[in-house]
Design brief:
alpha/beta, 10 helices, 12 strands
Length: 310
């Protein structure tokens, strides 16, 4: 897959079959759309092209309403690449771009830059300045500029009728298993392992403190979770805590993972955790001994859960 970071960097002499959207989370609804592109590429001979935007339009147009995203832009690119698209364009979303009229967008971008042969789009998609145009306008533009429009109906997407908003809600409630159902894969966080207080190693549960660089990345609800862990391309399992460590007087929220059957120094390494199941809420225990007992119970729960999914 060829990746372009501006519409202006791309121009096609071959006909393309296009879809567009923010694709945050690349959930099963998004996946259904990309699978449609792949199937129709074989019959049409067109190149597949996905147009996505970063930052998220709401980050630019609604700055008073902060939005947290399910994927970093790198995660989104990797997810789309897994679907075997020919081209991905990551367009910077700006107020100037948002001010393009619907016809300017269609003529200047879809027709002149993309050499569009067909577009596949959700039934509820709106576009152009003030999101003034809808699927009916797009069909009219298709007739005028000689490209086909395929609408993905509500009925077609009924089984995968999910939204990034529903997934965000599930994660902010700690319901990572529901989020996995909507996404089609476990929710993930990536970050660099940084120095912590090193308390965990003194009580038999050493942890790697994960620093997530992207402030816009959604971190699930405070609590303890069963996770998969990827370190240096090797896969492990473990249990992860999101919280302030109130038993030992912690104040700052941290993300810490205890990796099972692992004993390496990985400070400075980039690791990825995959959320599999929520174990419990964060608690303030009356003593360190009670905390240790709870951690042992968390480990037993986690290993039992992992044995069922291996």
């Amino acid at each position: 897959m060829e990746v372009f970071h501006s519409i202006q960097d791309f121009q096609s002499t071959e006909k393309t079959i296009v879809t567009l959207g923010t694709f945050d989370g690349m959930h099963i609804g998004h996946q259904a759309i990309l699978n449609k592109l792949k199937k129709q590429k074989n019959s049409s001979g067109y190149k597949t092209l996905v147009l996505t935007f970063f930052p998220h339009p709401r980050m630019v147009l609604k700055t008073d309403n902060k939005i947290l995203l399910l994927n970093t832009i790198e995660e989104r690119i990797n997810r789309i690449e897994n679907f075997g698209m020919d081209y991905l364009i990551v367009q910077e979303f700006t107020k100037e771009f948002a001010n393009l009229s619907a016809e300017e967008f269609v003529k200047n971008i879809l027709v002149d830059q993309f050499n569009i042969g067909k577009i596949i789009i959700g039934y509820d998609h709106r576009f152009g300045k003030n999101r003034s145009a809808d699927i009916h306008d797009l069909i009219e533009f298709g007739r005028k500029y000689h490209f086909d429009v395929e609408q993905i109906s509500a009925e077609e997407l009924d089984e995968v009728s999910v939204s990034s908003t529903k997934i965000r809600k599930a994660l902010t409630e700690g319901n990572v298993s529901l989020a996995k159902t909507y996404l089609g894969y476990p929710y993930m966080l990536s970050g660099k392992v940084v120095d912590g207080k090193k308390l965990g190693r003194t009580i038999g549960f050493p942890t790697a403190n994960i620093q997530v660089a992207e402030e816009y990345k959604l971190i699930p609800e405070i609590g303890v979770y069963v996770v998969g862990v990827t370190v240096k391309d090797e896969k492990y399992y473990g249990m992860l805590s999101i919280g302030t460590n109130p038993t030992v007087g912690g104040l700052e929220k941290t993300v810490e993972v205890h990796i099972f059957d692992f004993n390496e120094m990985i400070y400075g390494e980039e690791i990825t955790v995959h959320f599999l199941e929520r174990i419990r809420n964060e608690e303030k225990f009356a003593s360190l001994d009670l905390l240790i007992e709870a951690l042992k119970e968390d480990e037993s729960f986690s290993r039992a859960f992992i044995s069922k999914i291996k």
